[in-house]
């Protein structure tokens, strides 16, 4: 192997490294990005288009799955309580279930009391468009559909409340005294 060969190899490695360093953006949606326009169906088969159908509302989108061992399923139920608490201020949670729920799966019965949209992303296509790399993933969109907060992994309902109220009240966490 000649010195010329090693010089070319070193140049190629240097170019690839520099190109990679210039692209320091992480994959997927980031804070400040506009959410993609997507249409999903709810558990009854009704279409919902995001973010168009939720425009004007602060929207917490929760990507989850019943078979996800890292997903706390009770968080979806707790979002119902946050929805009731903040819906008059313009808050709307949306739960997006990865994979098709099976109608005979008794585990879904406890979600019958949920009144906010529960959507189905049967093949994970929408999750990929939103840059979801693992479940659960939660995003908070502002009234215009811009991503303002993003959590990959699990967090407590108190954390979600802080995130959504920070967006809802334009930077101020709502402490109940307004």
Walk me through the structure:
Residues 29-169 form the Thioredoxin domain. InterPro entries: AhpC/TSA, Thioredoxin-like_sf, Thioredoxin_domain, Thioredoxin_ResA/DsbE_sf. This is Cytochrome C biogenesis protein. GO terms for molecular function: antioxidant activity; oxidoreductase activity. This protein is of the alpha/beta class and 178 residues long. The protein has a single domain (28-168), classed as 3-Layer(aba) Sandwich (Glutaredoxin), CATH 3.40.30. The chain has 4 helices and 7 strands; from the N terminus they run H-E-E-E-H-E-E-H-E-E-H. It has helices at 3-22, 74-86, 125-129, 157-168; strands at residues 38-42, 47-50, 58-64, 91-98, 118-121, 137-141, 147-152. A 7-stranded mixed β-sheet has the order 2-1-5-4-3-6-7. 29% of the residues are buried.
Q: Which secondary structure elements does this structure contain, and how are they paired or packed?
A:
Blueprint: H1 3-22, E1 38-42, E2 47-50, E3 58-64, H2 74-86, E4 91-98, E5 118-121, H3 125-129, E6 137-141, E7 147-152, H4 157-168
Parallel strand pairs: 3-4, 4-5
Antiparallel strand pairs: 1-2, 1-5, 3-6, 6-7
């Amino acid at each position: 192997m000649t010195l010329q060969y090693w010089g070319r190899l070193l140049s190629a490695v240097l170019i690839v490294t520099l190109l990679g360093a210039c692209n320091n953006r992480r994959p997927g949606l980031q804070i400040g990005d506009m959410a993609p326009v997507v249409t999903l169906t709810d558990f009854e088969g009704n279409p919902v288009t995001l973010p168009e159908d939720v425009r004007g509302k602060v929207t917490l989108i929760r990507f989850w799955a019943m078979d996800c061992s890292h997903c706390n399923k009770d968080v979806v139920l707790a979002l119902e309580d946050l929805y009731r608490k903040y819906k008059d201020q313009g808050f709307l949670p949306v739960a997006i279930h990865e994979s098709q729920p099976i109608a005979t799966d008794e585990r879904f019965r406890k979600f019958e009391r949920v009144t906010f949209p529960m959507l189905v992303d049967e093949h994970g296509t929408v999750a990929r468009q939103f840059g979801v790399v693992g479940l659960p993933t939660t995003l908070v969109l502002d009234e215009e559909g811009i991503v303002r907060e993003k959590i990959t992994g699990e967090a407590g309902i108190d954390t979600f409340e802080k995130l959504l109220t920070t967006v809802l009240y334009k930077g101020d966490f709502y402490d109940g005294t307004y």
